[in-house]
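Lecture 7 notes: from sequence to structure.
We start with the chain below.
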Amino acid sequence: MKNYYIIDFDSTFTQVEALDELARISLENNPNREAIYEEIERFTNLAMEGKISFRESLAGRVKLLEANRDHLAKLIVHLKKKVSKSFSRNKEFFKDNSDTAWIVSGGFKEFITPVVMPYHIKKENIYANTFKFDEEGNIVGYDEHNPLSDEGGKVKLLKQLEIQGRIFGIGDGYSDFQLKESGLIEKFYAFTENIARQSVTDKADHIAPSFDEFLYVNDLPRAISYPKNRILCLIVGDVPEIAAHILKRDGFSIRVKETFEEKYTKDVGMILLGSDISISDDQLARADKLKTIGFLGDVKGHVSKTICNEKGIVVFDDKKLKKRNSEFIPRRMADFINNGDTDQSRNFPNMLLPKLTRAHRLLHIHKNVPGIMAQINNVYAENNINIFSQFLMTRGDIGYAVTDIDAAYDKKILKQLKQIENTIKFRILYK
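Predicted structure tokens for the same chain:
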């Protein structure tokens, strides 16, 4: 049976609620705009939480809009810039699944279609409401015969479509959960990258903080090897808020603490430390998932460089205590996770890599001993791997080999690369 992916638009495919944004455009010069904005948002939230019917919410919002075709054109430009980041970076998924990735929304085709079609979503696979216009192009209502304009509209639509396959629902609102409640879909994933509604997340089969998460748990092709929302990033000590903002915006799971609490030792993937914080050798040695440490100052005397080298942990710091380090250091950490860059690292070979496109990047951190690159390349040769590019740098006891390969390969090579003698750490980046 085919898999079908039923995806919501507002606050899921895009970061915002489109009708709310349309109101901000159409009411820009209205002296009562703030009060009207609040009323439109109130209608939106009540429906998303299941407290009023969708039709009541839709009628209330459309009536308040005072919008026309010119306003819609401006809205489309705005929405194209507001596509959720995890959907944007997985554009290739929609190209590969153009027959079965559908948009089903209580929003309106007039603005949804031009936003999603560049992502290879077919026009015939976009299900949404449609506006009614007067002769001057003003929005005066909507097609009330469309099942999506009514309460439980998504359920009614799927019953009409009689899809033969396994259906997965992805969305942020109560109308999305109703699909699961109806028994029409296999699983419902509450999408929380933009907003988390407890009335929805409490009932979901799985909470997906990103589209990467959905693809990961279903073992589907994706832009990154491991969802960043699953990478725990601890921020410890006196660290400016901008640092947390940068890392959270990039999709990492953030915890802000005064000390490096023992309960996080096993699972932490990234640590950003204020200049007054130290990590004990014992705790650092047991942090097996830790990939990178950022330090807002001179890390010497606070974190063992020797242990970091032994465990393949990349360290970024700023000995000169520049004001920009609260932004610069977290960005360096993110660049390492996202692209494999070690540029301006304190302990690793400084490598600034080209952006990865349509390939898998294999990061092999190893002890700098003779013959190891020959062993690595033997694995590729024995498995007939097509290598696009390869980079190698060493620094002291550390060797860092980066290889970009064709995405079509037997996964057994990953195990073989990990088992090479003197391997410290191995990681994959997908694009």
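Points to note: The chain has three domains: 3-217, 228-339, 360-430. The longest helix spans residues 33-48.
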